[in-house]
């Protein structure tokens, strides 16, 4: 078994093996290229394959930022293992360890003091480690010093025949008496919404809104809650998939007024009437899970945040 730098001669083998090993996260060659090779921070020096007699037996993609990401900047002490997998025929023979340790050493030489598994913004494949679908991954990473942190949840809801609950309609009517309005996005609110998203939630949220506007989708995909300015918003389709919901955010000063539930139910109705009969999103925390469960969504996957501190200067 030897480690070799990835090149596109290996592309078909890597994607085929990916779809066999990571069966809960199958992808196309086009998606692989878009999220891996065409990412601004892709570094061929951090992308390797394990070869056995010239055949791809494993793959690892790591990332160290070369370009700043919004207000996070370069995150100079942080690195990522975006994805790693090994052909089952070669597991427990040292191939995974060799790939992982090779990536760790390269990241350390580039200045990383901490490594995160998955959860690389904006082009992550996974928001963490799915210990249910990939049970062997938990033991593997913990053996190599990675420590589990918070759990995040992927959730979904069927929207066939969806109706806004009467309780939500009553809350909406009461909010309107207090001066709130709920509307589909209009471009006269463009600059205000961009500033609202950045100020209240950070640059990543602003980026989601901006891309929706740039692609001409905002009027169809964003809802606003207004009261002497923007009080909250929600959106969908941030990755081009019309079923994907989120983000949703309410101004900190307005979070006791029930606006989030109103916007969520309105968005699900808007999706249903457009013939979009499934709503899902990738990641929320424990309080978020409770919120969405109250609105009929259920968990279909969970992920744990795994990180490791590298030896050396802290």
The name of the CATH architecture of the largest domain is 3-Layer(aba) Sandwich
| Uncertain stretches | none
What is the multimeric organization of the chains shown? single chain
Tally of structural domains? 2
The largest sheet, given as strand count, sense and whether it forms a barrel, is: 8 strands, mixed
Strand order of the largest sheet: 1-2-3-4-5-12-6-11
Number of helices: 10
Q: What is the fourth-level CATH superfamily of the largest domain?
A: Gcn5-related N-acetyltransferase (GNAT)
Beta-strand share of residues: 25-35%
Task: Determine Rg (CA atoms, Å).
Answer: 22 Å
CATH class of the largest domain: Alpha Beta
Averaged pLDDT, please? 96
Percent of residues in helices comes to 25-40%
Give the distance, in angstroms, between the N- and C-terminal Cα atoms. Answer: 34 Å
| Molecular shape | elongated
What is the fold-level CATH name, i.e. the topology of the largest domain? Aminopeptidase
Based on DSSP secondary structure assignment, what is the total number of beta strands?
12
């Amino acid at each position: 078994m030897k480690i070799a730098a990835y090149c596109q001669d290996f592309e078909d083998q890597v994607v085929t093996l990916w779809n066999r090993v990571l069966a809960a996260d199958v992808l196309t060659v086009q998606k692989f290229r878009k999220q891996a090779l065409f990412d601004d921070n892709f570094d061929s020096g951090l992308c390797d394959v394990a070869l056995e007699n010239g055949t791809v037996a494993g793959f690892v993609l790591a990332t160290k930022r070369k370009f700043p990401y919004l207000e996070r900047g370069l995150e100079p002490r942080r690195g990522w293992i975006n994805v790693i997998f090994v052909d089952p025929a070669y597991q427990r023979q040292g191939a995974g360890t060799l790939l992982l340790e090779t990536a760790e050493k390269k990241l350390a030489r580039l200045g990383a003091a901490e490594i995160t598994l998955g959860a690389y913004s904006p082009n992550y494949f996974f928001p963490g480690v799915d210990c249910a679908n990939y049970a062997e991954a938990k033991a593997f990473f913990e053996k190599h010093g990675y420590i589990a942190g918070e759990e995040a949840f992927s959730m979904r809801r069927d929207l066939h025949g969806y109706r806004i609950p009467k309780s939500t309609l009553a809350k909406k009517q009461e909010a309107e008496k207090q001066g709130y309005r709920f509307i589909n996005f209009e471009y006269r609110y463009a600059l205000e919404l961009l500033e609202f998203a950045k100020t209240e939630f950070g640059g990543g949220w602003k980026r989601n809104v901006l891309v929706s506007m740039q692609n001409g989708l905002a009027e169809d995909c964003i809802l606003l809650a207004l009261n002497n300015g923007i009080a909250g918003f929600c959106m969908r389709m941030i990755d081009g998939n019309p079923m994907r919901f989120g983000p949703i955010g309410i101004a900190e000063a307005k979070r006791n007024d029930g606006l989030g539930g109103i916007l969520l139910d309105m968005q699900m109705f808007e999706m249903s009437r457009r013939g979009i009969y499934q709503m899902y999103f990738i990641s929320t925390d424990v309080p978020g899970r409770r919120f969405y469960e109250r609105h009929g969504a259920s968990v279909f996957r969970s992920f744990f945040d795994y990180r490791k501190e590298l030896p050396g200067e802290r």
